[in-house]
Design goal:
The protein is mostly beta strands. The protein starts with a strand and ends in a 14-residue tail after the last helix. It has helices spanning about 30-40, 165-170, and strands at about 1-5, 10-15, 20, 25, 45-50, 55-65, 70-80, 80-85, 100-105, 110-115, 115-125, 130-135, 145, 165. A 6-stranded antiparallel sheet has the order 1-2-10-7-12-5, with helices on one face. It has one domain: Sandwich (Jelly Rolls), CATH 2.60.120. Helix content is about 5%, strand content about 40%.
Length: about 180
């Protein structure tokens, strides 16, 4: 596994090797030892799987407030997605900046989204599936989200939005007094 930094501190891209032969392929999805530079002493406590049917659908931008902030490791198992992380950390030099990567089984990439960053994605192929590894348990009273089309973020989504949950459509816009998530 090769770990690559992005312009946002802590947002990382992990590339895995895939071995292919006439039977198919093999690849490592997670390795505590190889991911230690990214994950540190955090533990993976929850693994989630999502499948999104329609091309253009967006899920996100989700995060959790302290004391239940979480790191997410996100990998695409089927299809293709445009995966986005937004820095919401108070005092961060990249506050409100975003980074996106195309994730697919073919490119063997995984996005590491640290605590204090929002995460979301847009589906580029039908029936795309994501695997999420979390370092904190889902805690409904700590959950929050941002609007995918918030002008304060100006995320450039590659496709027109075709499907959005009612919950995600109701996330608030960032206000001028939002100073970030204290970590």
């Amino acid at each position: 596994m090769n770990i690559h930094a992005t312009a946002i501190s802590g947002v990382l891209v992990v590339e895995s090797a895939r071995i292919e032969d006439e039977r198919g392929s093999f690849g490592r999805l997670f390795c505590t030892r190889e991911l230690e530079p990214a994950v540190g002493d955090r533990r993976i406590v929850q693994v989630n799987h999502s499948r999104t049917r329609s091309v253009g659908a967006i899920r996100g931008m989700h995060f959790q407030y302290p004391p239940v902030t979480e790191m997410k490791l996100v990998r695409c198992l089927r299809g293709r997605v445009w995966d986005v992380a937004v820095d919401l950390r108070a005092g961060s030099p990249t506050f409100l900046r975003w980074h996106a990567e195309e994730l697919s089984p073919g490119n063997c990439r995984m996005m590491v989204v640290p605590e204090g960053c929002a995460h979301g994605f847009q589906v580029l192929e039908p029936d795309s599936e994501l695997l999420y590894l979390h370092t904190a348990f889902y805690t409904p009273i700590s959950e929050a989200g941002l609007r995918y089309d918030d002008p304060a973020l100006s995320v450039r989504w590659p496709l027109p939005v075709r499907d959005l949950s009612a919950r995600d459509a109701l996330h608030p816009l960032i206000t001028k007094d939002f100073s970030g998530i204290p970590l």
